[in-house]
Amino acid sequence: MLRKEFRIILLSLLVSFLLTAAKFTAYFLTHSVAILSDALESIINVVAGAFASYSIFLAGKPRDENHPYGHGKVEFFSIGFEGAMIFIAGCLIWVKAAQYFWGESQLREVTQGIWLISATTLVNLFLGLYLVRVGRRLSSITISGNGQHIMTDVYSSLGLIVALAAIHFTGWTWLDPAVSVIMGGLILRKGYQLLRRSVSGLMDETDMQVVDRVIQILRAHRRDTWIDVHNMRVQQYGNNYHIDCHVTLPYYLELSQAHDELKAIEMLVNREFPNSEVEFFIHPDPCIPACCHYCQLAQCPVRSEAFTGKITWKRENVLPNRKHG
């Protein structure tokens, strides 16, 4: 699968390089600062694509003694690097726009610029949609992040086309730097979002969507011997996950029986994450009398309290480090 990811990101890199060349051609024809802004963002697509190619190559390396969880964390460095480059591009665009506000406009050949940017936008649209779809299917944050960035480029290019058309028909050249300022703001926002995602991944911030998905899977296939699940922690390494949790089991189970129960949990979740590897470190907790009132094991030989009701598993009782009830 990683070889496929590598081929996809190389395709993105090649297309982005060709589109960047086309956008700079449009800039030299028109001298439009708004087109220059679009071209600068495309340079980031090329740089980010190159870094993403390396990160996918590195993420595909097997675990070793120095990296017992694999090399998947490099993907968070990849989107962080891309976010930083986008942020810098946004700042450069604002600087260039400010210079054009105070200088004399040199716009020319606007019609040719419109056609060139329209062509690059169409190609980018197909590429971005393809990368987002494949990235989700392969659970690759690098491919998905690259696709989202390209889709942002598409939206800004559409706004640019509208602005160039308005300039062509009205002669309002002040629209050129004004649109550039708006595009710079959108680019800065996207750069911040990617940086935020990178930092959260490197700091092992909990992805609540993954937590909810794991809880839903366990809840749907819950066994009576799984009295409760608590102290759950989820870490992401590329498109793989490492999950720590405690599972309360009947205290009288033999070691082999407890092992089978925990193995069933690991196999169950991995089956529901077909494009990822989910590694579990599960700590078995013995039940205590306080668990009896929500334990659903009808034939329990040591029950000391009557069953009063099932406790639904959710974030509020699965994440804290304590037994339910």
UniProtKB/TrEMBL annotation:
GO cellular component, one term: plasma membrane
Keyword Transport: yes
Signal peptide, first to last residue: none
Domain Cation efflux protein transmembrane: start-end pairs: 9-203
Name of a matching Pfam family: Cation_efflux
Gene3D superfamilies: Cation efflux protein transmembrane domain (1.20.1510.10), Cation efflux protein, cytoplasmic domain (3.30.70.1350)
Gene Ontology annotations of biological process type: intracellular zinc ion homeostasis
Topology of the protein relative to the lipid bilayer: Multi-pass membrane protein
Lineage top rank: taxon: Bacteria
Record localization: Membrane
The keyword Transport is annotated on this UniProt entry: yes
Main location: membrane
Regions that span the bilayer: 42-60, 81-102, 114-133, 154-175
Record domain Cation efflux protein cytoplasmic: where: 210-287
One Gene Ontology molecular-function label: cadmium ion transmembrane transporter activity
Ranges in coiled-coil conformation: none
Family of this protein: Belongs to the cation diffusion facilitator (CDF) transporter (TC 2.A.4) family.
Protein name: Cation diffusion facilitator family transporter
Provenance organism: Chitinophaga japonensis
